[in-house]
Amino acid sequence: MQEVFDLLIDYGYVILFLYSLGGGMIALLAAAMLASGGFLNLWICIGIAAIANFIGDNFLFYAARFSKNDILPYFRKQRRKLAFAYILFKKYGYKIIFFKKYIYGLKTLIPLVIGISKFSAVKFNLANGICAILWSVSVGSVGFLAGDFVKKTNEYFGSGISFSLIFFVFLLMCLWLYFEKNTKSKKYKKIDE
């Protein structure tokens, strides 16, 4: 276990960057929790996550914009989720760029849907940049506070399993179940290629 911990500290910023290209919420929370213990710098973690998240979403946007026919076959099994993402984009417009950063499963689909649409690339880049900064600051702050809470909880209850870890896993499961339930509904139509 100590080897894994040492690896996370030694290569934490690189791991955070790579993981944040595809979303990165869990990696940013973990990095911020390590920052609360003094092992990493919180502001560097927030900056790295924001930049990587921005780059990852832009890659998906432009891949869908310029290679729609090449990229969509890889998402055949995700047709319902793509339809759900399309409905959310039509209903909420550019605001969904911010909210999708917090919802598992939408992180990759929304930029694809927006890239396929005729939404302005300039507006997407601006909204994506602002939203990436807001997302990384909010998630990094929560992770930093959670790290402090975990430390205090472990000091109080001893070295056993942390109640905060159980709560965090429970919260992630609830988000995943919500998304799964909404994408299996019959009322969402499939997107035609």
Q: What features would you describe in this structure?
A:
76% of the residues lie in helices and 0% in strands. Helix 3 (25-36) runs antiparallel to helix 4 (42-66) and helix 3 (25-36) packs across helix 9. The model is unreliable at 187-193 (pLDDT under 50). The termini are far apart. It has 10 helices and no strands. With 193 residues, the protein is mainly alpha-helical.
Report strand %.
Answer: under 5%
Give the SSE order as H and E letters.
HHHHHHHHHH
Number of strands: 0
Portion of residues in helices? over 70%
Question: Which of globular, elongated, flat, extended, rod-shaped describes the shape?
Answer: globular
Mean of the pLDDT scores?
80
Structural class: mainly alpha
Radius of gyration: 18 Å
Largest sheet: none
**Looking at the chains present, what oligomeric state does this protein adopt?**
single chain
Unreliable runs, pLDDT <50, ≥5 residues? Answer: 187-193
Give the distance, in angstroms, between the N- and C-terminal Cα atoms. 47 Å
List the total number of helices: 10
The gist of it:
This protein is mostly helical and 193 residues long. Helices cover 76% and strands 0% of the residues.
Give the arrangement of secondary structure elements:
Layout: H1 2-10, H2 12-20, H3 25-36, H4 42-66, H5 68-71, H6 79-92, H7 96-99, H8 106-116, H9 121-157, H10 163-183
Helix pairs in contact: 2-3, 2-4, 3-4, 3-9, 4-8, 4-9, 6-8
Keywords:
10 helices; 193 residues; 0% strand; disordered C terminus; mainly alpha
